[in-house]
Design brief:
With 350 residues, the protein is mainly beta. The protein is built from 4 helices and 18 strands.
């Protein structure tokens, strides 16, 4: 078996995924299912099965747990694969813990390819030698985690509005994407490795709001507080009439003010720093050019957020998107630990 250094070096040097079909590599086809935060970095229509995959490591770390495996190609050469799973926060709620896989264990892995990174796949299922099959992904029907502690509860209080704990059900990608020349240049220059989330740096708004782990909304007289489990992001939407002043600085989450239009919370966010809108480098310019309006409403057990993003520096028309959430009153928002040393792909201490 090659050394761990050779394994890591092989992953970093790979330039192509597609070659001749492997003896123990069966390509399969499936219908696409809804994807987390728009299309996402993985193509759910481009599926793969790794037969007789030997586990090298299982790194149970945020932002995504990672599995290193090896499988044989048609020439009998051992090749390395990165298999990305969910956040440990989500995995624990699905009954998957740090001892889920052991080095040297042989399993069958089903997943789908990354859109740009060679030999990197997203995990769907793991089949063990004893016949057990574990599903390790969000529910394909509505893209929410398969939480063991998530039970739908019907509304009983007719006066409630947004308060409670919610789990994202996702929605379509951003609409009206007509990038300016400046945006095209920025996207052409962007490398996936530059995404700050790979270093455990929380993304800015609105991308920070588009995470699957859990959202808690707390309503107060002067503000509505949104607590996102992923990245420990907190937003304060001021509803007491205050407005940003001349000394208000730009931040990754911006400055949000809101008012109630009957049972809909209308929110305006300004004073954003330049941030990424998507994983693949769609930019937001920030500053005085950027303005985001949300309409947040609730119907029974469903929360709907309609976004309109104005940024004429990078987008010729306002971008729009609708995201839905499911009510999850039994879900507990827990700590989200992300160590940048561990999160960087396959970085080991000497």
């Amino acid at each position: 078996m090659a050394s761990m250094f050779s394994f890591l070096h092989e992953l970093s040097c790979l330039k192509t995924v597609r070659g001749a079909a492997a003896v123990f590599l069966a390509m399969t086809a499936s219908l696409p299912v809804p994807a987390h935060h728009g299309p996402g970095p993985f193509n759910q229509a481009d599926t793969i099965t790794l037969e007789e995959a030997v586990v090298e490591t299982f790194r149970y770390v945020n932002p995504h747990a990672l599995i290193a495996v090896r499988a044989l190609d048609e020439s009998g050469r051992i090749v390395a694969w990165e298999v990305e799973t969910e956040s440990p926060n989500i995995l624990r709620r699905s009954g998957v813990y740090a001892d889920f896989l052991s080095p040297g264990e042989t399993v069958r892995i089903e997943g789908y390819f990354h859109r740009t990174v060679p030999r990197r796949i997203k995990l769907q299922t793991v089949a063990f030698a004893d016949g057990r099959v574990a599903q390790v992904r969000r529910d394909a029907r509505n893209n929410t985690p398969l939480f063991v502690d998530l039970r739908e509860t019907e509304a009983t209080d007719p006066d409630w509005r947004l308060e409670g704990i919610w789990v994202e059900s996702d929605g379509p990608d951003w609409q009206n994407q007509r990038p300016t020349d400046a945006a095209r240049e920025a996207m052409a220059a962007f490398e996936v490795e530059e995404d700050p989330t790979r270093r455990c740096v929380a993304p800015g708004f609105p991308r920070a709001a588009d995470q699957p782990a859990g959202l808690e909304i707390i309503e107060q007289e002067h503000q509505v507080v949104l607590i996102y489990e992923t990245w420990h992001n907190v937003r304060r939407i001021y509803t007491d009439g205050r407005r940003p002043g001349p000394d208000t600085i730009g931040t990754r989450m911006g400055y949000s003010i809101g008012h109630w239009d009957e049972d809909t919370l209308v929110v305006e966010t300004t004073h954003l720093m330049p941030v990424l809108l998507t994983w693949d480098g769609h930019p937001i310019s920030g500053g005085g050019a950027t303005r985001i309006v949300e309409r947040i409403s609730r119907t029974g057990n469903e929360l709907t957020i309609d976004y309109t993003l104005e940024d004429p520096v990078y987008w010729e028309e306002p971008l729009t998107r609708m995201v839905t959430y499911r009510y999850a009153p039994d879900l507990e928002i827990v700590d989200y630990h992300c160590d940048p040393v561990n999160a960087l792909d396959w970085r080991y201490p000497d």
